[in-house]
Amino acid sequence: MPRGDKDKYTDKQKRKAEHIEQSYEDKGVSKDEAEARAWATVNKQSGGGERIGGSGQKKSPAAKAQARASSARRAVATKHGVPRSGQQLEDMTKAELMDRARKRHIAGRSTMRKDELIKALSSKE
């Protein structure tokens, strides 16, 4: 049987646990086991009961806007294959190297291994 006080859980978490528990009981799992599994599932999905102080640090609206803009820039750069600043060829995946070689029209790139791609790209720079 689950231990501990359930007072710190939200009503939504309690309803979810009841629903999960009922589902397990319908499958033939004992009441105690169903309750234990239900609360384990709720804990895994939501991290347990309510936390004192909310959900961590509070950011100012300006800091949030800056973080969103920065995140958006990184996402666009990743989508378009723009290398991260300071990224070495050795740190790139073979797919990234192939893409870069394709953009630079390096002949024979499709049969090259990663180390050969690095060598070819280094000589083209």
TrEMBL record:
Domain Rho termination factor-like N-terminal, residue spans: 88-121
Domain of life: Bacteria
Ranges for region Disordered: 1-89, 103-125
InterPro entries the record matches: Rho-like_N (IPR011112), Rho_N_sf (IPR036269)
Gly residues bias (residue ranges): 46-56
Listed Low complexity bias regions: 58-75
Record's compositionally biased regions (Basic and acidic residues): 1-36, 112-125
Swiss-Prot/TrEMBL GO biological process terms: DNA-templated transcription termination
SUPFAM superfamilies attached to this UniProt entry: Rho N-terminal domain-like
Protein name: Rho termination factor N-terminal domain-containing protein
Species annotation: Pseudomonas xantholysinigenes
